[in-house]
Design goal:
The complex is a heterodimer. Chain A is α/β, with parallel strands linked by helices. Chain A is built from 9 helices and 7 strands. Chain A has 2 domains: about 160 residues, NADH:ubiquinone oxidoreductase Nqo5 subunit (Beta Polymerase, domain 2); about 60 residues, no CATH class. Helices cover about 35% and strands about 10% of the residues of chain B. In chain B, strands 1-2-3-4 form a 4-stranded parallel β-sheet. In chain B, α3 links the parallel β2 and β3. Chain B starts with 20 loop residues before the first helix and ends in a 17-residue tail after the last helix. Classes of the chains: A alpha/beta, B alpha/beta. The interface between A and B is medium-sized, with 31 and 28 residues.
């Protein structure tokens, strides 16, 4: 005999998200207001920006917030001394398919308080955009790149939003979306041809290639803030087109990707 | 498991003339030295690599077959052992390593994933590395035991034993093919149809026999 809350959780899995496409809470009930102190504080601070609060599996608290103010709320959760969610465990997303909106999920953990919180943002399929939380948690850089790669959610203000798992020249879409066919959109022959047409260096910025090739970087005193600048300077040495701090598009930072594969072979001899 | 091309000991040389005593003896010496000091380039990407390590370690001790040293640079390697699944993102890396290896060179596709994609018939996975590089021996298994890999290496040895210096096409290197797929697009399309990779692939890529090769020189009693 399953516990009632476990039963609820299983039912929730089968019925999909507890919100309708317009973001209104439906099936799952609202959790008790005082069951999680952070949620009560969030409501007091931001009012209507907090849409819905529910509990899974006994103690997993999920808060739905409005997408427009997500960065503001998350920044408050990070920086408010009473909350101090200093660890961003994960950024991921869920696609329930059938035209339902994507859910963007932030898994927070407060190391000093030993309290966790899951924050969700519902994004309709026609506007898959969210504010980047990279300024709040640096670890969100790669996590948001993964979400962008797999689900196609664009993060406003992300310093380096490009694919992280699929090759840079991948053109078949975003594989973890429910409407993505299991074997991809192109034929295997085309996938093989495309895979081999791109030299592996294309997947890296000049910055990252400089690390791999162990090239000298200008030493800059002054700690981490200056470090970012020095990386930009190093990449400018490699490629004048990459003088902007962190180039975003493949064309900006491709290192002679127009060259043939044979040229790429020679490049790896160093 | 089997050989993609089985070269019997040359009785008649490829140009039609009879092989002389001198060239066949020279072949014997060259082939003996090649197979007795074969250096593997381990391309381990998944759990097969664990079995490959076991093969190289003391219990199975592949040094018995002259593979004294894993060559972690393709420049000094003779045998590419692709152990594990290969993603499309990794495919150009595999191809480049193959292109960087000097002749003579051979390739073992170790395990189900490297040979056919295995269970990973998905968007990100190469459906058999013979679409990327030419493969000499496929070792089945998930993962194969070290004995299986050693048997594959012995098949490579068998293949080397049958090669002759008088066949210039055997070890020819076409630099224009560098970085290109190993098989033409229509063959790739044919062998990688859903659930077709494991049944069609060996046949299309030129494997003569899908059964174990029984040889008169087999070492078991």
């Amino acid at each position: 005999m399953a516990k009632p809350e476990l039963k609820d959780a299983i039912a929730g899995l089968e019925s999909g998200p507890e919100t309708t496409p317009n973001g209104v809470a439906t099936a799952r009930g609202e959790a008790a207001a005082e069951s999680h102190p952070t949620v009560a504080a969030l409501r007091a601070q931001f009012g209507d920006a907090v849409l819905h609060h529910t509990v899974y599996s006994g103690d997993e608290h999920v808060v739905y917030i409005v997408p427009e103010r997500s960065q503001e709320l998350l920044s408050w959760l990070r920086h408010d001394p009473g909350q101090c969610f200093d660890l961003l465990k994960d950024v991921t997303a869920v696609d329930y398919g059938a035209g339902r909106p994507l859910e963007l999920v932030y898994e927070l953990w407060s190391v000093p308080r030993r309290v966790g919180l899951r924050v969700k943002v519902t994004l309709p399929l026609e506007s898959l955009e969210a504010d980047s939380v990279e300024p709040i948690w640096k670890t969100a850089n790669w996590l948001e790149r993964e979400v962008y790669d797999m689900f196609g959610i664009h993060f406003r203000g992300h310093p380096d939003l490009r694919r992280i798992m699929m090759p840079e020249n991948y053109a078949e879409g975003h594989p973890l979306r429910k409407d993505f066919p299991l074997r991809g959109r192109f034929s295997r022959a085309e996938q093989t041809r495309r895979a081999l047409s791109a030299p592996p260096e294309d997947n890296y910025t000049p910055d990252e290639l400089a690390v791999a090739l162990q090239e000298e970087r200008p030493a800059v005193a002054g700690g981490e803030v200056a470090d970012e600048r020095s990386h930009a300077a190093a990449s400018a040495d490699l490629d004048p087109a990459a003088a902007s701090p962190r180039p975003n598009t493949a064309a900006d930072w491709s290192l002679g990707s127009s060259g043939s594969a044979a040229a790429g072979t020679q490049g790896a001899t160093q | 498991m089997g050989l993609t091309e089985r070269h019997e000991l040359p009785v008649v040389s490829p140009d039609g003339g009879e092989a002389s005593f001198l060239t066949t003896r020279l072949d014997d010496i060259v082939n003996w030295s090649r197979r007795s000091s074969m250096w593997p380039m381990p391309f381990g990407t998944a759990c097969c690599a664990i079995e490959m390590m076991a093969m190289a370690a003391t219990k199975y001790d592949v040094a018995r077959f002259g593979m004294e040293r894993m060559s972690y640079t393709p420049r000094q390697a003779d045998l590419l052992i692709c152990a594990g699944r290969v993603t499309y993102k990794m495919a150009p890396v595999l191809r480049r390593i193959w292109d960087q290896m000097p002749q003579p060179k051979w390739c073992i596709s170790m395990g189900a994933c490297a040979s056919s994609g295995g269970v990973f018939d998905v968007y990100s996975m190469v459906q058999g590395i013979d679409t990327i590089v030419p493969v000499d021996v496929y070792v089945p298994g998930c993962p194969p035991r070290p004995e299986g890999l050693i048997y594959g290496i012995l098949l490579i040895h068998e293949k080397v034993r049958g090669e002759t210096l008088k066949n210039p096409a055997l070890r020819a290197e076409d630099s224009a093919r560098a970085g290109l797929p190993n098989l033409p697009a229509e063959v790739v399309a044919e062998i990688t149809t859903p659930f077709g990779n494991s049944t069609n692939q060996n046949k299309v890529s030129g494997l003569l026999s899908t059964g174990a090769v029984s040889r008169p020189t087999d070492r078991h009693p």
